[in-house]
């Protein structure tokens, strides 16, 4: 239910016609004005426009009518209700456009930085918010996988359920943010958001493409890698300025996609300073690692082109989160924040003081190893984390505790096994959101890709027990990574979110006595 704004049938019809989405309106007069919009019948109250979408059942529309819906919008005509319908060719696109209009296009008052990429979206978004909060006195809204922030106080922070919310929810949040005096937004945009048109019609001031590697391919997600890449590329087509990572794959494709709608002077590229660094396009910002340790990083950023120099961000920056891959995430945040007006001292503060729940959280023990809680849950991320730890602990043992999700991301099992096989000394395979599958079978499918004569591999179903055994048996100098669940405090099992203590809480208690 959203009682914050209004829209007339006439305004809706103009919008739908502009986008060639209207098939039929059953209204005899277009002067009717809606007080609410909703896509869930349970949230409908008086004079609401109800959207019928997704795995929809006609009974939901009856329910919506009963609760006060005065019209519905849908891709087909329903004859089980008396209220008129507005019939469209694509309900997801129509809902996004109508939601933005209903809330008076809040994006016009909320300059937005949007991140996409297979890995690093949340971390980069948190870095960026921490920087811009310095520049704009905490008036920066956030739409991330972990939290949604629509105002400056703690009551304005809620846990997110999707990386990118449904369009109606996104525009509701943006509207609330504007009402609460926020003046910028940092958001994560998933490939699913484009696949499902959750951000249709939305443009960003700055769009960042961090990286892409195969993930989210399979039933209910993307049929092919090409589809995954295409969906993610839409972020560039919808951004006024684009930032690309020279160290990722597909740079040429990405550059030309960006250039289709963005002038080259507004396309920026960043990359690590390497001898083998050769790209078809000039790199604007080079960075090099001055220090990357088990607890932090230090980088130097150097502008290489005239347009880059105009941002004045050359210098040395300390990054409070370990992991060499976080250096690139930090540079992305520094550049985007500077494009939004941040000064070097604000960038310096933000990068040094960002913490991201469940991302490279460090727990030290006195007599045993150092423990990391990290959200790595596919080949790309686990490989990055394990390679980093292996490099840091040439003599210590690298142990990983992980499982993999059931009913989705099936190909992650092979990736996790491969990453473990390449870089770990020891693995405890355990439970991670098994859904309707048997966690032991999932573990077996991970283990199928591990040479167990080389990597000491054990299955322990109970995640807490697996963590406890790995940490308490570790020795000084060993590194242990509890991977995959990050900040989650539940296990998805058979359609339920079963409460779970959380990796961080378990490790925090454990290390007290060690
Ligand atoms: C496959 C998919 O995209 N599903 C999303 C979609 O579901 P849906 O429209 O089919 O909704 P549904 O739950 O089947 O119900 C159908 C409709 O009936 C309505 N309803 C239902 C019950 C009722 O009593 N009355 C009623 O009106 C519902 O509100 C809904 O509008 O719309 C819902 C919100 O409107 C989303 O929560 C849901 O995301 C599912 C749960 C999901 O987890 N999606 C993942 C794959 C996802 O999007 N992940 C990405 C990250 C991955 C990436 O990086 O690509 C993300 O952005 O989070
Ligand atoms: N730039 C990067 N390259 C490779 N791995 C990364 C990078 N940044 C973060 N990671 C790894 O990926 C994990 C997830 O990071 P983060 O939450 O920032 O990414 P995300 O894109 O939001 O992920 P997801 O889509 O899975 O929510 C981290 O815990 C870390 O292990």
Automatic annotation (TrEMBL):
GO MF entries = ATP binding; magnesium ion binding; UDP-N-acetylmuramoyl-L-alanyl-D-glutamate-L-lysine ligase activity
| PTM entry text | Carboxylation is probably crucial for Mg(2+) binding and, consequently, for the gamma-phosphate positioning of ATP.
Q: Motif (L-lysine recognition motif) spans which residues? A: 432-435
N6-carboxylysine: modified positions: 232
Q: Where is the signal peptide?
A: none
Output the InterPro entries linked to this UniProt entry: Mur-like_cat_sf, Mur_ligase_C, Mur_ligase_C_dom_sf, Mur_ligase_cen, MurE/MurF_N, UDP-N-AcMur-Glu-dNH2Pim_ligase
GO terms in the biological process aspect are: cell division; cell wall organization; peptidoglycan biosynthetic process; regulation of cell shape
Cite the binding residues for ATP: 117-123
Q: What is its EC number?
A: 6.3.2.7
- Keyword Magnesium appears in the UniProt entry: yes
List cofactor names only: Mg(2+)
Q: Name one GO cellular component term.
A: cytoplasm
Query: Which of UniProt's keywords are assigned here?
Result: ATP-binding, Cell cycle, Cell division, Cell shape, Cell wall biogenesis/degradation, Cytoplasm, Ligase, Magnesium, Nucleotide-binding, Peptidoglycan synthesis
Enumerate the spans annotated as Mur ligase C-terminal domain. 358-486
Identify the metabolic or biological route this protein is part of. Answer: Cell wall biogenesis; peptidoglycan biosynthesis
Q: Which NCBIfam families match?
A: murE, PRK00139.2-4
Matching entries from PANTHER family are given as:
MUR LIGASE FAMILY MEMBER, UDP-N-ACETYLMURAMOYL-L-ALANYL-D-GLUTAMATE--2,6-DIAMINOPIMELATE LIGASE MURE HOMOLOG, CHLOROPLASTIC
Q: What does this protein do?
A: Catalyzes the addition of L-lysine to the nucleotide precursor UDP-N-acetylmuramoyl-L-alanyl-D-glutamate (UMAG) in the biosynthesis of bacterial cell-wall peptidoglycan.
Q: Which named protein is this?
A: UDP-N-acetylmuramoyl-L-alanyl-D-glutamate--L-lysine ligase
Task: Give the organism, scientific name.
Answer: Lentilactobacillus sunkii DSM 19904
